[in-house]
Amino acid sequence: MSDTLRFLFRQFFLKPPATLPDQHNLQGQSGIVTGSNIGLGLEASRQVLALRISRLILAVRDLAKGEKARRELAHAAPWAIIEIWHLDMNNYQSVQDFARRCGALPRLDFAILNAGILKVQLEINESTGHDEVIQVNYLSTALLAILLLPILGDRKAANKPGRLTIVGSETAEWAKFHEKGSNSSILAAFDEPRYFDLQDRYYTSKLLEEFLVVRLCRTVPSSKVVVNIVNPGLCYGTGLHTEVTGMLGAVFGVCKRMIGRSTTVGARTLVNAAVVQGPQSHGRYLSDCTVTP
């Protein structure tokens, strides 16, 4: 079966199961979800709150939007402490400040690194000098993951490992990754206009995340922190394609509504990866709540 047929089969015929409170109760636990004021991050936050988590940190770039999300979530989960913490994945200092703040937490059981972007043209980050898609989806995600690993390993429950879940995409399989053939460094090639392609840049950023997970799992044992990467499938309502406008944007919108899952269904995969999956998922790629080769 071709990659396209497998993708369509999963989208139309596979429905990831919900994680139920009577099976996984998170009372007493603390967690982080990045990019949690909209889309998959917001819905994943809603679902972990339904599992009775005691403390949830919503890591967002826009504090006003984060507060709006917090109020919405708090209405349905009055038992939980829900906090808004600033995190700008475009800025290394913001990532470091966020991780330093996490280091002061008395407990941290899991982190879902969901923040990601797609750009229609090459935009160089003023702070770092790198392409913003690579900056947010890979470089800052890698930095945050590395900084959180020792915290998750030390502040977890005594009888189980911490969890670090990165939200990836099956589009990593479709990446052409032309930059690897550049005469300059790969990182420098990402900043060259001739290599930029709207779709492939996003696909390649997700491929780099998979490389990151493989490397991290060689650094930390699954007895300390389980590190995995999850594919939520194509979902509508995520806000990922908001910069794609005009005719192309209309096509994207129609396709997502026809083929895509709701964020409610897609977020089930994030919660499963961060809460349900055990050491067997360490360093592995998850799709439809299943470890996948």
Could you describe the 3D structure shown?
The protein is of the alpha/beta class. The protein contains nine helices and eight strands. Strands 3-2-1-4-5-6-7-8 form an eight-stranded mixed β-sheet, sandwiched between helices. Helix 2 crosses helix 9 (263-276) and helix 5 (132-154) runs parallel beside helix 7 (198-219). The longest helix is centred in the middle third of the chain and has 23 residues, at 132-154. The protein is globular and about 50 Å long. The chain starts with a helix and ends with a strand. The model has no long low-confidence stretch (mean pLDDT 94).
Task: Calculate the mean pLDDT score and round it.
Answer: 94
Largest sheet: number of strands, sense, barrel closure: 8 strands, mixed
Tell me the radius of gyration: 18 Å
Order of helices and strands: HEHEHEHEHEHHEHHEE
Task: List low-pLDDT spans.
Answer: none
Task: Estimate the global geometry from the Cα principal axes.
Answer: globular
> Strand portion, in percent?
5-15%
* Main sheet strand line-up: 3-2-1-4-5-6-7-8
**Share of helical residues:** 40-55%
Q: State the distance separating the first and last CA atoms.
A: 15 Å
Total strand segments:
8
Oligomer: single chain
Number of DSSP helical runs: 9
- What structural category do the secondary elements indicate? alpha/beta
